[in-house]
UniProtKB/TrEMBL annotation:
EC number: 1.1.1.244
Name this protein carries in UniProt: NAD-dependent methanol dehydrogenase
Family label: Belongs to the iron-containing alcohol dehydrogenase family.
Gene, per the UniProt record: mdh
GO molecular function: metal ion binding; methanol dehydrogenase (NAD+) activity
Enzyme class (EC, first level): oxidoreductase
Record-annotated Fe-containing alcohol dehydrogenase-like C-terminal domain positions: 177-370
Organism: Clostridium oryzae
Pfam families in the cross-refs: ADH_Fe_C, Fe-ADH
InterPro entries attached to this UniProt entry: ADH_Fe/GldA, ADH_Fe_C, Alcohol_dehydrogenase_Fe
Domain Alcohol dehydrogenase iron-type/glycerol dehydrogenase GldA, first and last residues per copy: 23-163
Length: 371
């Protein structure tokens, strides 16, 4: 029985220039990044590299439309290494560009093609949430289906992940909040997943501790994102990525995809909607086992005397960023059953990682609680 793997080499540097000096960016590199990151951190050290700015084709979460246009541009370029510098959207798009004979996003996410990796991949996150730099998963909104789909392939693992805290200094507070809550979701879902074990729980537990203690420091000292605190959150995201890269994520992510796809919420924002409700439901259905272990750990970190830690957790997270109800985004009552059906139909890859299985009615009830 395989317990754990980490296929990606992990590096850290103080600055992008330090990274560039060691990795020798040149004419055979393709850099995928935002225009603002390129101008501020990259352009002086990457004059010979080809560049793609995915946001030129559309902002927000990755969509099949944007991916198709990025693929079309990449197919005009000659490169042997992809260097991705960005948040989860950019990293998830860049992963796909290491594959040979790319055509469309639909062909990738529906697995209508053969997958062969023929380029190196270097992943540099500029947020503290996705953990995408160490996973083999890419997620996109498929416009034709009005939902998000993920694909997990061995070929999508990065060869190198590079952590550079400097690159998080310009992260707006809203995106810091949602990305760090996203990392917390990754760690908690991994901790209770069927495939979790001593190795994955070690990484997940450290990620949970860093994130919750970091939030507590922010509330105690004011919401000032120092470079030292950003480094903690960056490593917490990476630890959570290592954990869920081995175990998968579950119902929180599955529930979030129809909402994110229909109402265009950021990934961390839509995950935030369901974190507390899913774990309350897990505890109701099967209070013993891994969820009991997690609950005890959360109570210790939150200094919580309640029987369950989830009201205290919700209170802490609401101090970091308000968790709006789903109606405020436009979701209608009748969509609870529709979205639950969508989850059952399209998200079995995620539902198989649940702590306990949830029925269509139970999924619908969670949506209704968040309305």
């Amino acid at each position: 029985m395989n317990l754990f793997k980490l296929k990606t080499n992990i590096h850290t540097f103080k600055t992008f220039r330090d990274f560039s000096d060691e990795f020798k960016i040149g004419s055979e590199d393709l850099i995928v990044c935002s225009e603002s990151a390129y101008k501020k951190y990259i352009q002086g050290d990457a004059a010979e590299a080809a560049i793609i700015f995915p946001k030129k084709y559309g902002s927000g979460e990755p969509t099949s439309t944007v991916i198709d246009k990025v693929i079309k541009q990449a197919n005009t370029l000659n490169y042997s290494r992809v260097i991705a510098v960005g948040g989860g959207a950019i990293l998830d798009i860049a992963k796909l560009l290491v594959l040979r004979d790319l055509t469309t996003a639909k062909a990738i996410f529906n697995k209508e093609m053969d997958f062969h990796k023929d380029k190196k991949l270097v992943m540099i996150p500029t947020t503290c949430g996705t953990g995408s730099e160490v996973t083999n998963i890419s997620v996109a909104e498929i416009k034709e289906l009005k939902t998000k789909l993920g694909v997990a392939l061995e070929e999508l693992y990065g060869d190198d992940a590079v952590l550079i805290p400097e690159l998080l200094q310009d992260l707006p507070y809203k995106y810091f909040a949602f990305s760090s809550i996203d990392a917390l979701v990754h760690a908690m879902e991994s901790f209770v997943a069927p495939k979790s074990n001593r190795y994955t729980k070690m990484y997940a537990a450290e990620a949970i501790k860093l994130i919750i203690s970091g939030f507590q420091k922010l509330l105690d000292n004011g919401k000032q994102l120092t470079i030292e605190l950003l480094e903690d959150f960056l490593f917490a995201s990476n630890f959570a990525g290592i954990a869920f890269g081995n175990t998968g994520t579950g119902a929180v992510h599955a529930l979030s995809y129809p909402v994110g796809g229909n109402y265009h919420l950021a990934h961390g924002e839509s995950n935030y909607q369901f974190l507390v409700e899913v774990f309350k439901r897990y505890t109701e259905i099967k209070p013993e086992g891994k969820v009991s272990e997690l609950n005890c750990y959360l109570k210790e970190l939150l200094h919580c005397d309640d029987n369950l830690p989830y009201d205290a957790l919700a209170e802490l997270l609401s101090e970091i960023w308000e968790n709006r109800n789903l109606k405020s985004y436009g979701m209608k009552d009748e969509e609870a059953d529709i979205f639950a059906e969508d989850v059952i139909k399209n998200q079995q890859r995620l539902l198989s990682n649940n702590y306990v299985q949830l029925s269509k009615k139970e999924l619908s009830d969670i949506y209704k609680k968040r309305l």
